[in-house]
Structure formats: structure tokens, C-alpha cells
Amino acid sequence: xxxKSPTYEEQLGFEIEKLPGEYLxxxxxxxxxxxxxxxxxxxxxxxxxGWKLRLxxxxxxxxxxxxxxxxxxxxxxxxxxxxxxxQGCSNSQPEGE
Length: 97
Hints:
- This protein is an all-alpha fold and 97 residues long.
- The chain has two domains: 7-39, no CATH class; 49-91.
- Helices cover 78% and strands 0% of the residues.
- The radius of gyration is 35 Å and the shape is rod-shaped.
- The mean pLDDT is 85.
């Protein structure tokens, strides 16, 4: 007498048979999401996705640096214009006052 254990497919089949039919669409979605999450992507896709993510990070860093630099230049221009105005005011006062 050969008592072999049911395969995983058979065990899944038994469990699925116990479910009411209204839950099968949700189970199908769960199984598909699970499969997609555990299956390895081809190396090329993984490499490409990694580079896209890295380039996006680098672009964000570049935009941040550019924003800081622009703000710095704007502040510098304001300081220079205020300094020039002050120098103009001090030069426009008549001597002896």
C-alpha cells in the first residue's frame, strides 16, 4: 500500500474547492500578485530599472543643487545692489556735512 503525500498542486486544489465561488476572483488576484512579486525579473530589466532609479535620484540631487545655487545668486545680487545703493547714498552727501 503506497501512501504518498499530496502534491502542492493537489493541496491547493483541495483548498480552492472549499472556497465559495464568489471568492475565486479575489484569490486569483492574490495568486497573480504573489507570482509577480516572487518571480525574478530578467537581469536586463532589473539592471535597466536600477539605472532609471539612480538617474532619477541624481536628477533630484542636481535640481536641489541648482535651486540652492540660484537662491545663493539671487541673495548675492540683492546684497550687491544694497551695497551699491549705500555707496551711492554716502557719495551723494555733500562734503563738510
